[in-house]
């Protein structure tokens, strides 16, 4: 196989066009993420790739091979769901072996592959336990082992970390990314969390109402959003008219909070403007600052570590930014 091609794929549910004429190419071995708000069609598109949802139109290919009319178990795919879908009455080993049952594999080969899959997810020795004896993170690892045991060419993840606490989400996402890279499997990962998407993905497709809003490297979508929707969905930003920042062009721009500095700490040549501080928030490594322009427009700024001068609420300060960090948005 060499990559996945999705061409003109659409799916409607009643009056809702859940997936609207999507074209995508995913490279072999790539970690590719479908990102977007609730209801934008991420799960529907993933289920069409997996074989759990029929296409109204379009084609899906693995390499040269058209797969959108094959049944799910013939597509060579492992899938990991949000709610683990682990069977409570089976042992850990039984759950992992479940994926092999339909494949008529000999008992000794089966137990070897189950052990191998459990070792891959750091659960060697847990085979005899029951699911209720495991933590949430361990349960999700069982679900990943069950997807891996069939040695699929493609791994699909639908919000696999959303039932875990914040700390565990951060360590598990690194684990999933590391595992995928070491196995060289193509992964398609669904999330609505833009930070999670940026941390794990080679590329991201940002979806909006069934369509692809922007496809690209995480850094490019963050730095060069093509629309207001993309600018706002990828993190906090200032969407303002350039003229409000003292520039001549009558266009709307996106300027990220961390691109702003206090003028006295900024290089000469950066664009400067005056603003009144209305709120300061010290978050340990990060200080957040809200300021308003003369016309009342809110400007959000974030700096690593505290600024050298100690600004206070109510003072007028001069802020600065590099115009190269502005993105014009339609
Ligand atoms: N089986 C179904 N029957 C009817 N409508 C559906 C069905 N599945 C999805 N939809 C609708 O299609 C749209 C896309 O749903 P989908 O589950 O793909 O969104 P999502 O991006 O995965 O959202 P979330 O982040 O909330 O999981 C929604 O409007 C949803 O209500
Ligand atoms: Mg979903």
- Stretches where pLDDT is under 50 for at least 5 consecutive residues are none
The assigned CATH architecture of the largest domain is 3-Layer(aba) Sandwich
CATH class category of the largest domain: Alpha Beta
Give the distance, in angstroms, between the N- and C-terminal Cα atoms: 39 Å
CATH topology of the largest domain: Rossmann fold
Rough outline: elongated
**Helix-and-strand structural type:** alpha+beta
Rounded to an integer in angstroms, the radius of gyration calculated over CA atoms is 24 Å
Total strand count, please? 18
Main sheet properties: 6 strands, mixed
Strand content: 25-35%
Structural domain count: 2
Side-by-side strand order of the widest sheet: 6-7-8-3-9-10
At the fourth CATH level, what is the homologous superfamily of the largest domain? P-loop containing nucleotide triphosphate hydrolases
Helix content, binned percent: 25-40%
**Which ions, cofactors or small ligands are bound in this entry?**
adenosine-5'-triphosphate, magnesium ion
- With helices defined by DSSP (H or I, 4 residues minimum), what is the helix count? 8
Order of helices and strands: EEEHEEEHHHEHEHEEHHEEEEEEEE
Mean pLDDT: 93
């Amino acid at each position: 196989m060499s990559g996945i091609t999705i061409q003109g794929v659409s799916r409607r549910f009643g009056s809702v066009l859940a997936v609207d004429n999507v074209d995508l190419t995913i490279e072999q071995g790539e970690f590719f993420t479908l990102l977007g708000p609730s209801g934008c069609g991420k799960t529907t598109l993933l289920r069409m790739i997996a074989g759990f949802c029929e296409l109204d139109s379009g084609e899906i290919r693995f390499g040269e091979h058209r797969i959108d009319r094959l049944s799910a178990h013939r597509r060579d795919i492992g899938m990991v769901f949000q709610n683990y879908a682990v069977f409570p009455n089976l042992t850990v080993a039984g759950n992992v072996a479940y994926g092999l049952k339909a494949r008529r594999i000999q008992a000794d080969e089966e137990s070897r592959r189950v052990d191998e899959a459990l070792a891959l997810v750091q659960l060697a020795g847990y085979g005899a336990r029951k699911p209720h004896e495991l933590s949430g993170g361990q349960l999700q690892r069982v679900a990943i082992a069950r997807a891996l045991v069939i040695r699929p060419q493609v791994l699909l993840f639908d919000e696999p970390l959303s039932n875990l606490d914040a700390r565990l989400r951060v360590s598990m996402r690194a684990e999933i990314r590391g595992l995928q890279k070491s196995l060289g499997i193509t992964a398609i990962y669904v999330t609505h969390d833009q930070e999670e998407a940026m941390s794990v993905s080679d590329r991201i497709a940002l979806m909006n109402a069934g369509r692809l809003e922007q496809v690209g490297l995480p850094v490019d979508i963050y730095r060069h959003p093509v629309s207001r929707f993309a600018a706002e969905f990828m993190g906090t930003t200032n969407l303002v008219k350039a003229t409000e920042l003292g520039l001549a062009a009558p266009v709307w721009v996106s300027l990220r909070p961390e691109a702003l500095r206090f003028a006295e700490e900024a290089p000469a040549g950066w664009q400067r403007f005056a603003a009144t501080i209305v709120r300061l928030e010290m978050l340990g490594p990060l200080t957040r600052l809200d300021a308003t322009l003369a016309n009342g427009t809110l400007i959000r700024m974030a700096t690593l570590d505290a600024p050298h001068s100690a600004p206070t609420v109510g003072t007028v300060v001069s802020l600065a930014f590099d115009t190269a960090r502005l993105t014009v948005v339609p």
